[in-house]
Give the backbone structure.
Amino acid sequence: MKNQLLAALVLCVGPTLVAAEDVAPGDVAFSDGAVLASLTGAVGDAVAGRAAFINRKQGNCLACHANAEIPEQSFHGEVGPPLDFVAERWTAEELRGIVSNAKMMFPDTIMPAFYNGLEPNRSLKKFAGKTVLSAQQVEDIVAYLQTLSE
Amino acid sequence: MKLQNAIAAAAILSFAGTMSFAQDDNELSVDGQLISTEADAPAHMENVGTVYSGWRFRSEDTQAMQMDDFDNSGFVFVDDGLSLMASVDGSEGKSCASCHENVEDFAGLKAKLPRVNDSGELETMEELVNTCRTERMGAEPWKYSGSQMTAVTAVIGLQSRGMPIDVAIDGPAASFWERGQELYYARVGQLDLSCANCHEDNYGTMIRADHLSQGQINGFPTYRLKNAKLNGVHNRFSGCMKNVRAEPYADGSDEFKALELYLASRGTGLSVETPSVRN
């Protein structure tokens, strides 16, 4: 019984719920497009980040970015720049800013904001009030991007 | 010759790095009739010089299906549409054919729609069909993007195949057109994207497995390999909105009608391709 309750609670923790220790989507502080502090207060998991990068329902970063480190996926998008060696171009703080809300780094960019508190126009009801990724997933992806160096 | 082109293409490709071609140079002809898949963009399109049909962005296999009416599965539904048009329905004991003996009389209609009617309303082909059903046949209206509607609008649209899109956007149409333009550039949904982000700024690039076209509507209703049926144009708008996680407007809504007029005007000069084949 107790276990069932616990399982139900764990299930609720998706991209939608903000864990108590996470920076709330509306409170993410940008400086020159970068976000200095971890959104979870901890370092992300690069392996989980790689999976979220690929997953069409999570980052789906491959929709727009080619990435030679993921040769097993057959379709890589061309809308954004390839992310090969991206860690040579941007610091972890800048990468966190770009993934959280790329418009703070590249005004008017097509790249969606994955963690911000703004309510977009006409969000589908099931996504209203939610961020695309959780704070944990952003940190995981940032950790993964940092592995993309020479 | 073909080989030379391929070599030239390969050379260009390697210069362009990962970028694929915006569109190919293939020519669309059906039973010897040339169908123009590009045109100079109309003056109101500030950011695009040439408009291209979605056909130019599809694979050669998909393109080939549209080059022969026997290979074009859209024609299965055109046949359904012809039977529907011959069937009596409603309290007046009439079929479409009772008033429209010869479907070829519909030649030219598709190229001009949507248009503003005498009451100052913007009307689409689906609405014209339903007006006949409710007011002249005493029949129930069809669902806006349902299978009967797409079948019959395909029959009517086919009569204009090869004719250039030429919708009126001035005078009484101007305010509808402006609303459509606003909707085209409005960012919507959790992913916060506009139609223009994909179909104006990025046509010709791959978005994961999809080759982005200009999102032209000259081929609707369109037979899609994805769902093996004809798809109405508002249905496609709705699909694109859901992909960016936006709440779509309703099929037949004022918003989608205005967007349809605006998109038709962005395809001015492209040939009607109904029923086109897309993936």
